[in-house]
Amino acid sequence: MQLQRSEPINCDVLVVGGGLAGIMAAIGAKDFANEVILVEKGKVSRSGATVFTHGALGPASGDEKEVWVQELAEHSTYLCDQEWTEILVTEQRDRINDLASWGVPLQRSADGSFITESGRGQRQSKIVLYDGKKMMEVLRKHALQKGVNLVEKVAVVDLLTSDGRYPTEGRVTGAIGVNVQTGEIKVISCNAIVLATGMGSLKLHALNMDNVTGDGQAMAYRVGAELAGLEFAMAPTFSIWNRYFCTPSQSQFQSHGAKIVNSVGERIIEKYFPGQSEQSLDFGTLCRMVAKETLEGRGPIYFDLREWSDAQIDKMRAVQPRTMKGFDRAGVDIKKQLIETTPMMTGYSASGEGGIRIGKNADTSVTGLYAAGVCALIAANISSLMGVPQAFCSVAGYRAGENAGKLSTQFDGFEINTDQVELVVEHLAAPFRREVGLSPQAIWHKVHEVILPLERSFFKEEQKIKEVISLLQSIAAEDILNASVTDPHDLVKLLEVRNIVQLSELVYLSALERKESRLTHYRTDYPFRDNEQWLKWVVIRRRDGGPEVSLEALPLSSYKFKPSSTTVNISI
Questions:
Q1: Which one in 99, 127, 415, 572 has a CA-CA gap of 20 to 30 Å to 12?
Q2: Is the pTM of this model over 0.90?
Q3: 520 to 81, 156, 236, 266, 510: CA distances (angstroms)
Q4: What's phi and psi for 425, nearest 5 deg?
Q5: CATH code of residue 300
Q6: For residue 232, what is the DSSP state?
Q7: Is residue 245 helix, strand or coil?
Q8: Peptide bond connecting 380 to the previous residue in cis, omega within 30 degrees of 0
Q9: What is the mean pLDDT of each run of 10 residues along the chain (572 residues)?
């Protein structure tokens, strides 16, 4: 197949990704830049995770801000950037007001004030509820009214740099994309780029986002940006219901008093954490608990919602209509039946647990490159609280757009390294010329076989981690480099699996480095949280010789809230 090129496109700011963070970035950039282009692999308002979400961190009053920051710091096990966390809590009020003024139907009381409530694990902070699908439709309309140019059905495959190198010693100057239907290649030159591509999902139909495959994280790594916290990026879930269908919303069930029981009727939290409730546990711990019960033969595991009131069910129908319709269509009466749930690892950074490292302006370590949303490192590892990832999308997205827009005004004209463009185009064309080679679908299947076993994902130890890294490197060096495709759809799937394999290797390299257990990172050979040695970041970036891993201690002396220096055994 001969890949055709469209006419080159120029813009001041390029935003990659059309979810909440991407739209907020494009809207923010448009206040400073004349030409803002948002490129989305699918359709804006139907792509990404926000469509399936139902709540965001609410607006904090002046008196609440400090206690909210403290709560978020505690939930991160004090591993968050407390300065960024304060920005998040402070600026979310403006972003919530923006969303309301643009017409997003946030839930309100009769007097017009926002209705807020506690979510999973929250004692102080609150969330505002909404229907994610309706919110994204409103934001698409507002972005178009602002003059943002939407380029849809185009997958951005690589960034371009001023020196034509990967990793670069210069700055980003553009990107190359491919139309997912026609294969037409688009070369876009710009003066600033915002990556807002979301999580890295495996193709398991588990999160309704099979085309969100870590593209931003992988492109940022290739261009030389720092990533951090990737050992926490494993995204466990148990939202596969009755082995039949999958929906989001297990967090809403958890926060509204669902009980989790095993096959012999035991409420399993009472075995591991007597006196606590399911609502009190972070997501990683809860998922490991469900997985352990399953592995030890006490599955299936069930959600028990039979004590829910009609009012609770009506509320779920308002904020999670697609989830409740799923149960209706499957013939499941949640007031009468137990709902079987299945533990699995679905991908990386589902809520921004680890990703592209950003500064206060949402800038990365590469000049001209910004990142926001869950492809970036959230402020940091506070996603166990409901609504925080959505707030981070809004706040960091808007900040990234504003600062990218400001930077873009400092340049006259555009520059593209034509040799680099030709190398990328040749890379795109090569799989069409191969008659023998694995298909992208076959490679995806191999990746799933490597990553999905519970002893490689939920319960890691040194030898298993090294085994996964070796297998991933083999897939990258042999299967991906020799793959064969026949149409643009297959090409995009091949590029997606390249990205997920690259991101997966970085995740496991980071997990190998952190010799403790914390949050979603659990090692059976180090089953304790060690605040004495491990209040530090695992940072990873690309060098000419490959990935370079380093450690960076948190600046605790400048933080207001500090942990104890104790070691805590968190084995289950």
A1: 99
A2: yes
A3: 18, 30, 8, 24, 13
A4: -65, -40
A5: 3.90.700.10
A6: G
A7: strand
A8: yes
A9: 88 97 98 97 89 84 89 89 92 95 90 78 81 93 98 98 96 97 96 95 76 95 97 82 73 77 92 84 80 90 90 82 83 90 82 88 98 85 72 96 97 90 95 93 97 91 98 97 95 97 97 94 93 94 93 93 78 70
Going from the C-alpha of 417 to that of each of 11, 32, 414, 568, the distances in angstroms are 16, 26, 10, 52
Peptide bond into 167 cis (omega under 30): yes
Whole-angstrom distance, CA of residue 434 vs CA of residue 432: 6
Phi/psi of residue 523, nearest 5 degrees:
-120, 125
The position carrying tokens 């095993």 is 262
Asked, for residue 255, whether it belongs to a domain, the answer is yes
The answer to whether residue 150 sits within a structural domain is no
Beta carbons within 10 angstroms of residue 107's beta carbon: 17
| Residue 81 located in a structural domain | no
Close Cβ partners of 488 (under 8 Å, ≥ 6 residues apart): 1, 178, 179, 180, 181, 182, 183
- Identity (one letter) of the amino acid at 499? N
Q: Are 58 and 116 in contact (CB under 8 A)?
A: yes
Count: domains in the chain:
1
Residue 317's domain comprises 236-345
Q: Report the residue count for the chain.
A: 572
